[in-house]
Write a structure and sequence with these properties.
Layout (H helix, E strand, L loop, with lengths): L1 H11 L2 H12 L8 H12 L3 H16 L2 H6 L5 H23 L8 H29 L4 H26 L6 H17 L16 H28 L4 H16 L3 H8 L6 H6 L14 H12 L9 H21 L18 H4 L3 H13 L1 H8 L1 H7 L6 H42 L1
Helix pairs in contact: 1-12, 2-7, 2-8, 2-9, 3-4, 4-7, 6-7, 6-9, 7-8, 8-10, 8-11, 8-20, 10-11, 10-20, 14-15
Protein backbone atom coordinates (compact mmCIF):
# COMPACT_ATOMS: atom_id res chain seq x y z
CA UNK A 1 0.00 0.00 0.00
CA UNK A 2 2.83 2.39 0.86
CA UNK A 3 4.58 1.64 -2.43
CA UNK A 4 1.36 2.25 -4.38
CA UNK A 5 0.93 5.57 -2.61
CA UNK A 6 4.52 6.58 -3.43
CA UNK A 7 4.01 5.64 -7.07
CA UNK A 8 0.84 7.71 -7.20
CA UNK A 9 2.63 10.72 -5.72
CA UNK A 10 5.50 10.28 -8.18
CA UNK A 11 3.03 10.06 -11.04
CA UNK A 12 1.09 13.17 -9.98
CA UNK A 13 4.31 15.17 -9.61
CA UNK A 14 5.82 14.00 -12.89
CA UNK A 15 6.52 16.93 -15.19
CA UNK A 16 5.60 14.81 -18.23
CA UNK A 17 2.11 14.33 -16.81
CA UNK A 18 1.84 18.12 -16.57
CA UNK A 19 3.00 18.42 -20.17
CA UNK A 20 0.49 15.85 -21.44
CA UNK A 21 -2.33 17.52 -19.49
CA UNK A 22 -1.29 20.87 -20.98
CA UNK A 23 -1.43 19.28 -24.44
CA UNK A 24 -4.99 18.13 -23.75
CA UNK A 25 -5.99 21.60 -22.60
CA UNK A 26 -4.42 23.16 -25.68
CA UNK A 27 -6.13 20.62 -27.95
CA UNK A 28 -9.45 22.29 -27.14
CA UNK A 29 -8.18 25.82 -26.48
CA UNK A 30 -7.89 27.11 -30.06
CA UNK A 31 -11.45 28.38 -30.05
CA UNK A 32 -10.66 31.27 -32.38
CA UNK A 33 -9.86 28.89 -35.23
CA UNK A 34 -13.48 27.70 -35.26
CA UNK A 35 -14.83 31.17 -36.02
CA UNK A 36 -14.94 30.29 -39.71
CA UNK A 37 -17.47 27.55 -38.88
CA UNK A 38 -19.40 29.61 -36.33
CA UNK A 39 -19.74 32.87 -38.24
CA UNK A 40 -22.10 31.55 -40.98
CA UNK A 41 -24.50 30.35 -38.27
CA UNK A 42 -24.46 33.73 -36.53
CA UNK A 43 -24.83 35.56 -39.83
CA UNK A 44 -27.89 33.59 -40.96
CA UNK A 45 -29.59 33.46 -37.54
CA UNK A 46 -29.24 37.16 -36.75
CA UNK A 47 -29.46 38.44 -40.34
CA UNK A 48 -26.05 40.11 -40.20
CA UNK A 49 -24.29 41.39 -43.28
CA UNK A 50 -20.64 40.69 -44.03
CA UNK A 51 -19.50 43.99 -42.52
CA UNK A 52 -21.14 43.11 -39.20
CA UNK A 53 -19.61 39.63 -39.26
CA UNK A 54 -16.22 41.23 -39.89
CA UNK A 55 -16.67 43.29 -36.73
CA UNK A 56 -17.36 40.12 -34.79
CA UNK A 57 -14.15 38.74 -36.27
CA UNK A 58 -12.21 41.77 -35.05
CA UNK A 59 -13.64 41.27 -31.56
CA UNK A 60 -12.59 37.61 -31.73
CA UNK A 61 -9.06 38.55 -32.79
CA UNK A 62 -8.77 41.09 -29.98
CA UNK A 63 -9.95 38.53 -27.45
CA UNK A 64 -7.46 36.01 -28.79
CA UNK A 65 -4.57 38.48 -28.75
CA UNK A 66 -5.04 40.58 -25.62
CA UNK A 67 -3.28 38.33 -23.12
CA UNK A 68 -1.97 41.13 -20.92
CA UNK A 69 -4.57 40.50 -18.22
CA UNK A 70 -3.92 36.75 -18.17
CA UNK A 71 -0.17 37.31 -17.96
CA UNK A 72 -0.55 39.83 -15.13
CA UNK A 73 -2.90 37.56 -13.17
CA UNK A 74 -0.47 34.64 -13.53
CA UNK A 75 1.90 36.58 -11.25
CA UNK A 76 -0.60 36.76 -8.38
CA UNK A 77 -2.95 33.78 -8.87
CA UNK A 78 -2.18 30.06 -8.77
CA UNK A 79 -2.41 28.47 -12.19
CA UNK A 80 -5.54 26.49 -11.30
CA UNK A 81 -7.33 29.76 -10.55
CA UNK A 82 -6.07 31.19 -13.85
CA UNK A 83 -7.50 28.21 -15.71
CA UNK A 84 -10.78 28.53 -13.84
CA UNK A 85 -11.12 32.19 -14.84
CA UNK A 86 -10.52 31.25 -18.48
CA UNK A 87 -13.09 28.44 -18.30
CA UNK A 88 -15.71 30.79 -16.85
CA UNK A 89 -15.03 33.41 -19.53
CA UNK A 90 -15.27 30.81 -22.29
CA UNK A 91 -18.53 29.39 -20.92
CA UNK A 92 -20.21 32.75 -20.29
CA UNK A 93 -19.14 34.38 -23.55
CA UNK A 94 -19.95 31.64 -26.05
CA UNK A 95 -22.79 30.26 -23.93
CA UNK A 96 -24.61 33.58 -24.15
CA UNK A 97 -23.93 33.78 -27.89
CA UNK A 98 -25.52 30.33 -28.24
CA UNK A 99 -28.59 31.46 -26.29
CA UNK A 100 -29.00 34.48 -28.58
CA UNK A 101 -28.49 32.50 -31.80
CA UNK A 102 -31.00 29.81 -30.79
CA UNK A 103 -33.60 32.35 -29.67
CA UNK A 104 -33.46 31.37 -25.99
CA UNK A 105 -32.29 34.88 -25.09
CA UNK A 106 -33.31 38.23 -26.60
CA UNK A 107 -31.33 39.56 -29.54
CA UNK A 108 -28.60 41.92 -28.37
CA UNK A 109 -27.01 44.91 -30.12
CA UNK A 110 -24.00 44.23 -32.26
CA UNK A 111 -21.56 45.81 -29.81
CA UNK A 112 -22.80 43.51 -27.04
CA UNK A 113 -22.34 40.48 -29.30
CA UNK A 114 -18.80 41.69 -30.02
CA UNK A 115 -18.20 41.97 -26.29
CA UNK A 116 -19.45 38.42 -25.71
CA UNK A 117 -17.22 37.08 -28.50
CA UNK A 118 -14.30 38.99 -26.99
CA UNK A 119 -14.92 37.58 -23.51
CA UNK A 120 -15.36 34.02 -24.75
CA UNK A 121 -12.27 34.03 -26.93
CA UNK A 122 -10.19 35.84 -24.31
CA UNK A 123 -10.58 32.77 -22.11
CA UNK A 124 -8.16 31.06 -24.49
CA UNK A 125 -5.36 33.40 -23.37
CA UNK A 126 -5.72 32.06 -19.82
CA UNK A 127 -5.40 28.49 -21.10
CA UNK A 128 -2.32 29.37 -23.14
CA UNK A 129 -0.67 31.28 -20.31
CA UNK A 130 -1.17 28.55 -17.71
CA UNK A 131 -0.02 25.78 -20.05
CA UNK A 132 3.06 27.61 -21.32
CA UNK A 133 4.16 29.03 -17.97
CA UNK A 134 3.99 25.68 -16.20
CA UNK A 135 5.66 23.65 -18.96
CA UNK A 136 8.41 26.16 -19.73
CA UNK A 137 9.34 26.12 -16.05
CA UNK A 138 9.24 22.32 -15.98
CA UNK A 139 11.35 22.00 -19.17
CA UNK A 140 13.79 24.94 -19.05
CA UNK A 141 16.25 23.21 -21.38
CA UNK A 142 13.63 22.24 -23.99
CA UNK A 143 11.62 25.40 -24.45
CA UNK A 144 11.52 25.19 -28.25
CA UNK A 145 9.83 21.76 -28.48
CA UNK A 146 7.54 22.52 -25.53
CA UNK A 147 6.23 25.81 -26.93
CA UNK A 148 5.98 24.42 -30.46
CA UNK A 149 4.00 21.35 -29.42
CA UNK A 150 1.65 23.22 -27.08
CA UNK A 151 0.93 26.02 -29.55
CA UNK A 152 0.60 23.41 -32.27
CA UNK A 153 -2.13 21.61 -30.38
CA UNK A 154 -3.91 24.94 -29.92
CA UNK A 155 -3.95 25.23 -33.71
CA UNK A 156 -5.06 21.63 -34.13
CA UNK A 157 -7.99 22.09 -31.77
CA UNK A 158 -10.14 23.35 -34.63
CA UNK A 159 -9.86 20.00 -36.42
CA UNK A 160 -10.35 18.02 -33.20
CA UNK A 161 -13.48 19.91 -32.18
CA UNK A 162 -14.83 19.68 -35.72
CA UNK A 163 -14.49 15.90 -35.62
CA UNK A 164 -16.28 15.77 -32.26
CA UNK A 165 -19.03 17.92 -33.76
CA UNK A 166 -19.33 15.42 -36.63
CA UNK A 167 -19.89 12.73 -33.99
CA UNK A 168 -22.78 14.68 -32.50
CA UNK A 169 -24.42 14.85 -35.94
CA UNK A 170 -26.85 17.55 -34.85
CA UNK A 171 -29.07 19.09 -37.55
CA UNK A 172 -28.95 22.33 -35.57
CA UNK A 173 -25.72 24.03 -36.66
CA UNK A 174 -25.86 26.28 -33.60
CA UNK A 175 -24.94 23.24 -31.50
CA UNK A 176 -21.34 23.86 -32.58
CA UNK A 177 -21.42 27.10 -30.56
CA UNK A 178 -22.80 25.17 -27.58
CA UNK A 179 -19.99 22.63 -27.88
CA UNK A 180 -17.41 25.44 -28.00
CA UNK A 181 -18.91 26.94 -24.83
CA UNK A 182 -19.15 23.71 -22.82
CA UNK A 183 -16.45 21.34 -24.12
CA UNK A 184 -13.23 23.31 -23.45
CA UNK A 185 -14.56 24.52 -20.08
CA UNK A 186 -15.20 20.95 -18.92
CA UNK A 187 -11.74 19.75 -20.01
CA UNK A 188 -9.96 22.67 -18.36
CA UNK A 189 -11.83 22.30 -15.06
CA UNK A 190 -11.04 18.58 -15.01
CA UNK A 191 -7.29 19.19 -15.49
CA UNK A 192 -6.72 22.54 -13.76
CA UNK A 193 -5.07 21.06 -10.65
CA UNK A 194 -2.60 19.00 -12.69
CA UNK A 195 -1.12 21.80 -14.80
CA UNK A 196 1.41 23.48 -12.53
CA UNK A 197 5.18 23.84 -12.08
CA UNK A 198 6.59 20.74 -10.39
CA UNK A 199 10.28 21.58 -10.29
CA UNK A 200 11.18 20.20 -13.69
CA UNK A 201 14.74 21.53 -13.40
CA UNK A 202 15.29 18.85 -10.76
CA UNK A 203 13.93 16.08 -12.96
CA UNK A 204 16.28 16.08 -15.97
CA UNK A 205 16.48 12.64 -17.52
CA UNK A 206 18.56 11.16 -20.28
CA UNK A 207 15.29 9.90 -21.80
CA UNK A 208 13.97 13.40 -22.50
CA UNK A 209 15.14 13.38 -26.12
CA UNK A 210 13.48 10.04 -26.87
CA UNK A 211 10.27 11.14 -25.14
CA UNK A 212 10.06 14.27 -27.26
CA UNK A 213 10.69 12.12 -30.33
CA UNK A 214 7.73 9.93 -29.37
CA UNK A 215 5.49 12.97 -28.99
CA UNK A 216 6.65 14.34 -32.35
CA UNK A 217 5.75 11.01 -33.96
CA UNK A 218 2.31 11.10 -32.31
CA UNK A 219 1.84 14.66 -33.59
CA UNK A 220 2.64 13.69 -37.17
CA UNK A 221 0.41 10.62 -37.03
CA UNK A 222 -2.42 12.65 -35.50
CA UNK A 223 -2.18 15.36 -38.17
CA UNK A 224 -2.06 12.82 -41.00
CA UNK A 225 -4.96 10.88 -39.52
CA UNK A 226 -7.16 13.96 -39.13
CA UNK A 227 -6.36 15.07 -42.65
CA UNK A 228 -7.36 11.67 -44.03
CA UNK A 229 -10.53 11.48 -41.94
CA UNK A 230 -11.67 14.96 -42.97
CA UNK A 231 -11.15 14.20 -46.66
CA UNK A 232 -12.97 10.86 -46.43
CA UNK A 233 -15.90 12.39 -44.57
CA UNK A 234 -16.14 15.16 -47.14
CA UNK A 235 -15.95 12.88 -50.19
CA UNK A 236 -18.03 9.95 -48.90
CA UNK A 237 -21.35 9.99 -47.08
CA UNK A 238 -20.44 7.86 -44.04
CA UNK A 239 -22.89 6.39 -41.59
CA UNK A 240 -22.74 7.37 -37.94
CA UNK A 241 -21.09 4.11 -36.85
CA UNK A 242 -18.02 4.79 -39.02
CA UNK A 243 -17.83 8.36 -37.70
CA UNK A 244 -17.88 7.01 -34.13
CA UNK A 245 -15.03 4.64 -34.95
CA UNK A 246 -13.01 7.48 -36.49
CA UNK A 247 -13.59 9.65 -33.42
CA UNK A 248 -12.66 6.81 -31.05
CA UNK A 249 -9.34 6.35 -32.87
CA UNK A 250 -8.78 10.11 -32.59
CA UNK A 251 -9.24 9.95 -28.82
CA UNK A 252 -6.81 7.03 -28.61
CA UNK A 253 -4.14 9.01 -30.49
CA UNK A 254 -4.63 12.01 -28.21
CA UNK A 255 -4.43 9.86 -25.06
CA UNK A 256 -1.44 7.71 -26.15
CA UNK A 257 1.25 10.12 -24.78
CA UNK A 258 0.03 9.44 -21.22
CA UNK A 259 2.12 6.28 -21.48
CA UNK A 260 5.28 8.40 -21.07
CA UNK A 261 4.65 9.54 -17.45
CA UNK A 262 3.28 6.09 -16.57
CA UNK A 263 6.44 4.44 -17.86
CA UNK A 264 8.70 6.96 -16.11
CA UNK A 265 6.84 6.43 -12.83
CA UNK A 266 7.70 2.75 -12.77
CA UNK A 267 11.24 3.11 -14.15
CA UNK A 268 12.43 6.27 -12.37
CA UNK A 269 16.18 6.33 -11.77
CA UNK A 270 18.26 8.08 -9.13
CA UNK A 271 20.30 11.12 -10.05
CA UNK A 272 24.02 11.32 -9.45
CA UNK A 273 25.35 13.73 -6.77
CA UNK A 274 26.81 15.92 -9.53
CA UNK A 275 23.39 16.29 -11.11
CA UNK A 276 21.82 17.13 -7.77
CA UNK A 277 24.45 19.82 -7.15
CA UNK A 278 23.94 21.33 -10.59
CA UNK A 279 20.16 21.21 -10.53
CA UNK A 280 19.51 22.26 -6.96
CA UNK A 281 16.78 24.81 -6.37
CA UNK A 282 17.70 28.43 -5.61
CA UNK A 283 18.06 29.20 -1.93
CA UNK A 284 16.13 31.93 -0.20
CA UNK A 285 17.93 35.21 0.10
CA UNK A 286 19.76 35.87 3.33
CA UNK A 287 21.47 39.14 4.26
CA UNK A 288 25.06 39.45 3.00
CA UNK A 289 26.13 35.85 3.73
CA UNK A 290 24.34 33.78 1.09
CA UNK A 291 24.36 34.05 -2.66
CA UNK A 292 21.84 32.99 -5.23
CA UNK A 293 23.18 29.87 -6.99
CA UNK A 294 21.52 31.00 -10.20
CA UNK A 295 23.74 34.07 -10.27
CA UNK A 296 26.78 31.82 -9.93
CA UNK A 297 25.51 29.62 -12.73
CA UNK A 298 24.80 32.40 -15.20
CA UNK A 299 27.73 34.70 -14.53
CA UNK A 300 30.76 33.36 -12.68
CA UNK A 301 30.59 29.86 -14.10
CA UNK A 302 30.58 31.18 -17.66
CA UNK A 303 33.61 33.36 -16.91
CA UNK A 304 35.63 30.85 -14.89
CA UNK A 305 35.09 27.64 -16.82
CA UNK A 306 37.98 26.54 -19.09
CA UNK A 307 37.48 26.98 -22.82
CA UNK A 308 37.78 23.26 -23.48
CA UNK A 309 34.76 22.38 -21.31
CA UNK A 310 32.31 22.89 -24.16
CA UNK A 311 34.26 20.39 -26.26
CA UNK A 312 33.62 17.58 -23.77
CA UNK A 313 30.75 15.06 -24.01
CA UNK A 314 27.49 16.20 -22.41
CA UNK A 315 27.80 14.03 -19.28
CA UNK A 316 31.41 15.04 -18.61
CA UNK A 317 30.68 18.71 -19.33
CA UNK A 318 27.78 18.65 -16.85
CA UNK A 319 29.98 17.05 -14.22
CA UNK A 320 32.77 19.63 -14.66
CA UNK A 321 30.35 22.56 -14.46
CA UNK A 322 28.76 21.09 -11.32
CA UNK A 323 32.15 20.82 -9.66
CA UNK A 324 33.03 24.39 -10.65
CA UNK A 325 29.72 25.68 -9.35
CA UNK A 326 30.25 23.91 -6.03
CA UNK A 327 33.73 25.41 -5.63
CA UNK A 328 32.48 28.92 -6.47
CA UNK A 329 29.59 28.65 -4.02
CA UNK A 330 31.96 27.53 -1.25
CA UNK A 331 34.42 30.32 -2.06
CA UNK A 332 31.62 32.89 -2.05
CA UNK A 333 30.40 31.66 1.32
CA UNK A 334 33.93 31.99 2.77
CA UNK A 335 34.37 35.46 1.29
CA UNK A 336 37.19 34.41 -1.04
CA UNK A 337 35.33 35.68 -4.09
CA UNK A 338 32.73 38.37 -4.52
CA UNK A 339 29.67 37.56 -6.57
CA UNK A 340 28.78 40.31 -9.00
CA UNK A 341 25.23 41.55 -8.72
CA UNK A 342 23.74 41.94 -12.18
CA UNK A 343 20.92 44.30 -13.02
CA UNK A 344 17.84 42.37 -14.06
CA UNK A 345 17.56 38.88 -15.47
CA UNK A 346 19.65 37.43 -18.27
CA UNK A 347 18.25 36.36 -21.61
CA UNK A 348 16.45 33.05 -21.11
CA UNK A 349 15.40 33.85 -17.54
CA UNK A 350 12.05 35.14 -16.31
CA UNK A 351 11.24 38.83 -16.90
CA UNK A 352 8.45 40.86 -15.40
CA UNK A 353 6.63 43.39 -17.58
CA UNK A 354 8.73 46.43 -16.65
CA UNK A 355 11.95 44.52 -17.32
CA UNK A 356 10.67 43.24 -20.67
CA UNK A 357 9.53 46.67 -21.90
CA UNK A 358 13.10 47.99 -21.96
CA UNK A 359 14.45 45.05 -23.96
CA UNK A 360 14.86 45.14 -27.74
CA UNK A 361 13.95 41.45 -27.94
CA UNK A 362 10.48 42.16 -26.56
CA UNK A 363 9.74 44.92 -29.07
CA UNK A 364 11.12 42.87 -31.95
CA UNK A 365 8.76 40.01 -31.08
CA UNK A 366 5.88 42.45 -30.55
CA UNK A 367 6.31 44.12 -33.94
CA UNK A 368 6.79 40.78 -35.68
CA UNK A 369 3.53 39.40 -34.31
CA UNK A 370 1.68 42.67 -34.89
CA UNK A 371 2.68 42.89 -38.54
CA UNK A 372 2.89 39.22 -39.44
CA UNK A 373 -0.26 37.58 -38.11
CA UNK A 374 -2.91 39.82 -39.68
CA UNK A 375 -3.18 38.10 -43.07
CA UNK A 376 -3.62 34.65 -41.56
CA UNK A 377 -6.29 35.85 -39.13
CA UNK A 378 -8.18 37.52 -41.98
CA UNK A 379 -8.36 34.25 -43.89
CA UNK A 380 -9.38 32.28 -40.78
CA UNK A 381 -12.12 34.75 -39.86
CA UNK A 382 -13.68 34.77 -43.33
CA UNK A 383 -13.07 31.16 -44.30
CA UNK A 384 -16.71 30.20 -43.84
CA UNK A 385 -18.01 32.95 -46.10
CA UNK A 386 -15.27 32.31 -48.67
CA UNK A 387 -16.11 28.61 -48.94
CA UNK A 388 -19.86 29.32 -49.15
CA UNK A 389 -19.30 31.86 -51.92
CA UNK A 390 -17.50 29.15 -53.91
CA UNK A 391 -20.49 26.82 -53.56
CA UNK A 392 -19.25 24.51 -50.78
CA UNK A 393 -21.87 23.47 -48.24
CA UNK A 394 -19.47 21.93 -45.72
CA UNK A 395 -17.26 24.74 -44.45
CA UNK A 396 -15.86 22.57 -41.65
CA UNK A 397 -13.48 20.74 -43.98
CA UNK A 398 -11.62 23.98 -44.79
CA UNK A 399 -11.47 25.00 -41.13
CA UNK A 400 -10.03 21.59 -40.28
CA UNK A 401 -7.44 21.67 -43.07
CA UNK A 402 -6.12 25.12 -42.15
CA UNK A 403 -6.06 23.97 -38.51
CA UNK A 404 -4.00 20.88 -39.37
CA UNK A 405 -1.43 22.78 -41.43
CA UNK A 406 -1.25 25.44 -38.74
CA UNK A 407 -0.47 22.66 -36.28
CA UNK A 408 2.31 21.22 -38.43
CA UNK A 409 3.86 24.66 -38.92
CA UNK A 410 3.96 25.39 -35.20
CA UNK A 411 5.32 22.00 -34.19
CA UNK A 412 7.91 22.19 -36.95
CA UNK A 413 8.88 25.69 -35.86
CA UNK A 414 9.53 24.51 -32.32
CA UNK A 415 11.60 21.58 -33.56
CA UNK A 416 13.69 23.66 -35.97
CA UNK A 417 14.25 26.43 -33.41
CA UNK A 418 15.62 23.91 -30.93
CA UNK A 419 18.06 22.60 -33.54
CA UNK A 420 19.22 26.11 -34.40
CA UNK A 421 19.65 27.19 -30.77
CA UNK A 422 21.18 24.01 -29.42
CA UNK A 423 23.38 22.81 -32.29
CA UNK A 424 23.95 25.70 -34.65
CA UNK A 425 25.10 28.00 -31.86
CA UNK A 426 27.44 25.26 -30.67
CA UNK A 427 28.97 24.98 -34.13
CA UNK A 428 29.42 28.75 -34.30
CA UNK A 429 31.32 28.65 -31.00
CA UNK A 430 33.61 25.97 -32.41
CA UNK A 431 34.20 27.96 -35.63
CA UNK A 432 35.09 31.02 -33.55
CA UNK A 433 37.62 29.05 -31.54
CA UNK A 434 39.20 27.59 -34.64
CA UNK A 435 39.46 31.11 -36.05
CA UNK A 436 41.25 32.32 -32.94
CA UNK A 437 43.68 29.40 -33.14
CA UNK A 438 44.43 30.12 -36.79
Amino acid sequence: MVKAKDLLITFINNRWLVFIAAMWIQSCAGIGYLFGSISPVIKSSLNYNQKQVARLGVAKDLGDSVGFLAGSMSEILPLWALLLVGAIQNFVGYGWVWLVVTGKAPVLPLWVMCLLIFIGTNGETYFNTAALVSCVQNFPKSRGPVVGILKGFAGLSGAILTQIYALINSPDKASLIFMVAVGPSMVVIALMFIVRPVGGHRQLRSSDASNFSIIYCVCLILAAYLMGVMLVEDLIDLNQTIVKIFTAILFVLVVVPIGIPIYLTFTSDRRTPEQEALLSEPQHKEPETSHDPNEIIFSEVEEEKPHDVDLLPASERQKRIAQLQSKLAQAAAEGAVRIKRTRGPHRGEDFDLTQALIKADFWLLFCTLLLGSGSGLTVIDNLGQMSESLGYDNTHIFVSMISIWNFLGRVGGGYVSEIVVRYKSYYMVQIGRVGRVV
